């Protein structure tokens, strides 16, 4: 006859592979293994026949076996009880419980709106890399090494390669477009940019911009103004006023910054417009001839305009968000507020 250890082993295999086909099957299992005349009891009675030097080990095996038999029963009876309660209620023809779904991020809502406004007048979307080389982020944009304008943007450099930076603006995509696309070009370039800023309500080390570029024969400053005016009325409403202030950007000449009449107070003065009635929304200008020359384009034949806006800025004005940090904290209480907008 098989030793106690061998018998335990055989029954263990049986228990492990046992899957009850129903309540009756599980009850048979209980009687067979755990009943008063069941296998656990029978094997326990045999311990006295085991030679004394093996008894300790056999006892331990027996205990483990008993535990296995009981656990199998417990887990299956729990499962049966759980399903027994649910079964009468279950109607598979009913629609399921809806899973909570996410909402669109406010920055993405605004970015999509910017894109669709410009798509309506023939702009297409272009993107570029976030790790950029010096040429596309600075030098080709008329900002050679040691140009003071480089200090306007605190740059993150990539440790592995001194020529690489995290792009400080989406103007780098302009450079890539002029380098690769046949003229005329009319593109809008949304994307994330990085600057080495201390994080606060008003500054962040990463944010989003949307760049625009139009290069063709006979593009004028009037085209730039009209295009941006169209954008503003689409985004902020017919009544919005614009004003252009002369400014400086190395890659445009002349350059301007554009303000819109404050959409919150309508001009009477509030915190958003710092009581001036105007809020700045973007930088723009006519593409600098040096930049066109950098890409082998003859500035006597072609002209163009460019502009760059901060997506956070537009979103802040549209949705009255007063702290930039909210955009990246992933707090659903914040994010849910823009549902359906
Ligand atoms: N790149 C500028 C910045 O990040 C924004 C900008 C200004 C973009 C004027 C342009 C432009 O294309 O023409 O501050």
How would you describe what is shown here?
This protein is an alpha+beta fold and 341 residues long. It folds into two domains: 4-84, no CATH class; 106-338, BirA Bifunctional Protein, domain 2 (2-Layer Sandwich). Helix content is 38%, strand content 19%. The chain is built from eleven helices and nine strands. It has helices spanning 4-17, 23-34, 39-45, 52-86, 106-119, 134-137, 171-180, 221-236, 289-294, 311-319, 332-335; strands at 124-125, 131-133, 164-166, 185-194, 206-216, 242-249, 252-261, 278-287, 303-310. The strands form two sheets. Strands 1-4-5-9-8-7-6 form a seven-stranded mixed beta sheet, with helices on both faces. A two-stranded antiparallel ribbon has the order 2-3. A hairpin with a 2-residue loop joins strand 6 (242-249) and strand 7. It is elongated. The model has no long low-confidence stretch (mean pLDDT 93). The chain binds 3,4-dihydroxyphenylalanine. Residues 169, 171, 211, 249, 252, 283-285, 306-308 line the site of 3,4-dihydroxyphenylalanine.
List keywords for this structure.
341 residues; alpha+beta; BirA Bifunctional Protein, domain 2; binds 3,4-dihydroxyphenylalanine
């Amino acid at each position: 006859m098989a030793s106690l250890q061998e018998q335990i082993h055989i029954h263990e295999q049986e228990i492990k592979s046992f899957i009850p086909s129903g309540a009756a099957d599980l009850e048979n299992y209980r009687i067979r293994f755990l009943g008063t005349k069941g296998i656990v009891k029978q094997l326990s009675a045999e311990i006295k026949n085991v030679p004394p030097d093996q008894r300790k080990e056999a006892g331990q095996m027996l205990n483990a076996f008993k535990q296995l038999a009981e656990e199998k029963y417990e887990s299956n009876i729990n499962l049966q009880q759980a399903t027994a309660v649910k079964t009468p209620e279950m109607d598979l023809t009913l629609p399921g419980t809806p899973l909570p779904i996410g909402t669109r991020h406010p920055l993405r809502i605004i970015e999509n709106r910017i894109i669709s406004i410009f798509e309506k007048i023939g702009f297409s979307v272009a993107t570029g890399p976030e790790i950029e080389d010096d040429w596309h982020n600075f030098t080709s944009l008329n900002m050679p090494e040691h140009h003071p304008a480089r200090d306007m943007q605190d740059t993150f450099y990539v440790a592995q390669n001194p020529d690489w930076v995290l792009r400080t603006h989406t103007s780098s995509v302009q450079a890539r477009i002029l380098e690769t696309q046949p003229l005329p070009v009319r593109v809008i370039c949304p994307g994330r940019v990085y600057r080495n800023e201390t994080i606060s309500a008003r500054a962040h080390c990463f944010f989003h911009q949307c760049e625009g570029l139009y290069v063709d024969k006979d593009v004028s400053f009037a085209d730039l103004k009209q295009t941006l005016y169209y954008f503003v009325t689409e985004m902020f409403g017919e009544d919005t006023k614009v004003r252009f202030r002369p400014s400086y950007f190395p890659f445009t000449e002349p350059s301007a910054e554009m303000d819109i009449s404050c959409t919150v107070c309508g001009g009477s003065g509030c915190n958003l417009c710092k009581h001036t009635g105007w809020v700045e929304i973007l930088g723009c200008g006519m593409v600098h001839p040096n930049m066109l020359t950098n890409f082998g384009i003859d500035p006597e034949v072609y002209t163009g305009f460019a502009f760059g806006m901060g997506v956070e800025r537009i979103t802040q004005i549209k949705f009255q968000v007063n702290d930039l940090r909210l955009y990246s904290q992933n707090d659903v209480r914040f994010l849910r507020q823009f549902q359906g907008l």
